[in-house]
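A reminder from the course coordinator: this example appears on the midterm review sheet, so study it carefully.

Given structure:
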């Protein structure tokens, strides 16, 4: 894989605990982030706590609640063994082998594997688009300006291509910009414009990349095509929400009507 920043999210430098001599702010922030992410999926767990890099009594209690929810001894202390349990959704998303008889199936199944592990952004120090999932998709970058939908797409393409010993950079450059990838699609004759796609659905295939068009050479959001049926595409996309926002909060499985929206499609065919 080319995109390996997720590996930095899987470890802490030392055991962290309330008033611990080996505490460091980055590790405490990681722990608090995973406690908060767990609370999103388990709202009654009592693990939601502030992300302020301070391992105080609130974080200690949140850790104990996390341990209780997972049938573990309630010590309030986070060593690497416990942290590995906390980060298991991220590790599973990036490292679990997925099945597929061809690249398109591998792309779709990789996207589904990420989806089931609940990637979600956090707000840290009043900055949205933050947290371990965003940093993993965006090669360590995070914050208000780091819209991560293309980072998610390229991560999925990278994982699937790597499973076949291929390099996704032969198809497109590493980029976080929908405009950059849309322009490359035009230059390589890989971009099907929405008018053409509406007239011929056979040009859209699972594993391709959709790009929502704002204007002819300006695209605002992207994701993976999972299936095509009767003028609709089923997608898996990052940094979105139930309304299909281009600056949402998580990875979602959505349905989009490409006959009612200006959606262009970038073909992955040269990589297949």
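Designed residues:
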């Amino acid at each position: 894989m080319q995109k390996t920043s997720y590996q930095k999210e899987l470890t802490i430098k030392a055991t962290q605990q309330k008033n611990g001599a080996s505490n460091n702010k980055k590790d405490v922030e990681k722990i608090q982030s995973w406690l908060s992410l767990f609370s999103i999926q388990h709202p009654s767990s009592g693990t939601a706590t502030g992300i302020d890099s301070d391992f105080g009594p609130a974080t200690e209690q949140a850790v104990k609640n996390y341990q209780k929810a997972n049938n573990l001894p309630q010590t309030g202390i986070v060593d690497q063994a416990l942290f590995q349990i906390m980060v298991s959704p991220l590790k599973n998303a990036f490292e679990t082998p997925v099945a597929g008889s061809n690249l398109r199936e591998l792309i779709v199944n990789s996207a589904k594997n990420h989806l089931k592990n609940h990637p979600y952004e956090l707000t840290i120090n009043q900055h949205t688009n933050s947290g371990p999932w965003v940093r993993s998709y965006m090669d360590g970058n995070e914050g208000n300006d780091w819209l991560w939908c293309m980072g998610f797409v390229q991560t999925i393409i990278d994982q699937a291509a790597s499973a076949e010993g291929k390099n996704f950079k032969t198809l497109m450059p590493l980029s976080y910009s929908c405009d950059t990838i849309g322009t490359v699609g035009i230059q390589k004759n890989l971009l099907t414009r929405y008018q053409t796609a509406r007239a011929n659905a056979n040009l859209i295939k699972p594993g391709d990349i959709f790009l929502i068009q704002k204007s002819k050479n300006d695209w605002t959001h992207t994701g993976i095509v999972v299936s095509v049926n009767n003028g609709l595409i089923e997608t898996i996309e990052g940094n979105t929400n139930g309304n299909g926002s281009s600056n949402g909060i998580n990875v979602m499985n959505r349905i989009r009507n490409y006959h009612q929206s200006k959606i262009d499609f970038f073909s992955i065919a040269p990589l297949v």
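The two ends are 17 Å apart (CA to CA). The CA atoms of residues 120 and 250 lie 4 Å apart.
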